[in-house]
Write a structure and sequence with these properties.
CATH class of chain A: Mainly Alpha
CATH architecture of chain A: Orthogonal Bundle
Number of helices of chain A: 6
CATH topology of chain A: Arc Repressor Mutant, subunit A
Shape of chain A: globular
Strand content of chain A: 5-15%
Order of helices and strands of chain A: HHEHHEEHH
Structural class of chain A: mainly alpha
Largest interface: A-B, 51 and 52 residues
Mean pLDDT of chain A: 94
Oligomer: homodimer
Radius of gyration of chain A: 17 Å
Distance between the termini of chain A: 38 Å
Chain lengths: 145, 145
Amino acid sequence: MDPGPLNVGLLLFIPYRELEERVFAAVQDAGYSDITLPQARLFQRISANGSRITDLANRVYVTKQTASVLVNSLESNGYVRRMPDPLDARASLVIADARGLAAAAVAAAEIQRIEAEWRKALGTARYERLVRDLDELAKHTNRPQ
Amino acid sequence: MDPGPLNVGLLLFIPYRELEERVFAAVQDAGYSDITLPQARLFQRISANGSRITDLANRVYVTKQTASVLVNSLESNGYVRRMPDPLDARASLVIADARGLAAAAVAAAEIQRIEAEWRKALGTARYERLVRDLDELAKHTNRPQ
DNA sequence: TAATATTAGTTCGTTACACTGACCATATGC
DNA sequence: GCATATGGTCAGTGTAACGAACTAATATTA
């Protein structure tokens, strides 16, 4: 049952998905059980000063229709709110609301825990280097981040 | 519109998803338009000597019911076939079929192209090091790979 | 400044996906 | 031999994904 050598995509995917799974479980266990994984994936891409639907859609790789639906759900449950974009009356800015900020704190704490594990597994220097290289690679993609 | 500093999860996600998107588009453009992204994600985890539904479900992070549905679709379109598992009469092995192998070749070619770009962007030594470190990190997760 | 084209976002309708629960068949342990 | 665990499917439901069509506001250009 040897799956064969893993390509780069899978090598990126495996730790990514492991982290996501653990963080999402931590958030759920902390009482935020009315958020789904696709909603959480969108939520974490919202910037502190608010993000437009279209930007979120691009970051998450979904259509703006889908992003709109996800934001509606998040809004219904108090994770985010919409505010008018002062620069463009067509647009609105999605911004984290109280419940969203509280959930984000739980997520951040779990990420810290996982990073500590990974540092231990690879050694601090090697881990820090990995993060820097990933950052460089992410910059190289021409996506809106 | 500064999204703030990106956590490790996102740093892994961004290049992963970029690669996936490009590979999937290449496969579609090559005429394999009857495969969906979730199906392709499962397909690429099938080992050369066949994989069980349960193993695929674990690798892809879906339930075995979902994996079963995805395999059915892939089977209908000639990407995979099921064969009985000689070691366990309850199980069956999912294995790539002709159309699946042809599509996989297209995917592999596109991955090579992307890796060449990434090597160029980071420098060969740094890129090879990154891949090794990712491999180490993937090994550290206790998931079935 | 009036006509035209773009862009931001929503609504509608449809399909695929993902989950839980329940179930059958085979294996395994005592 | 009987209880229990495991591999897989079936049924039912809700969410998420898409394309197409639409409204409203902004840019563009004549």
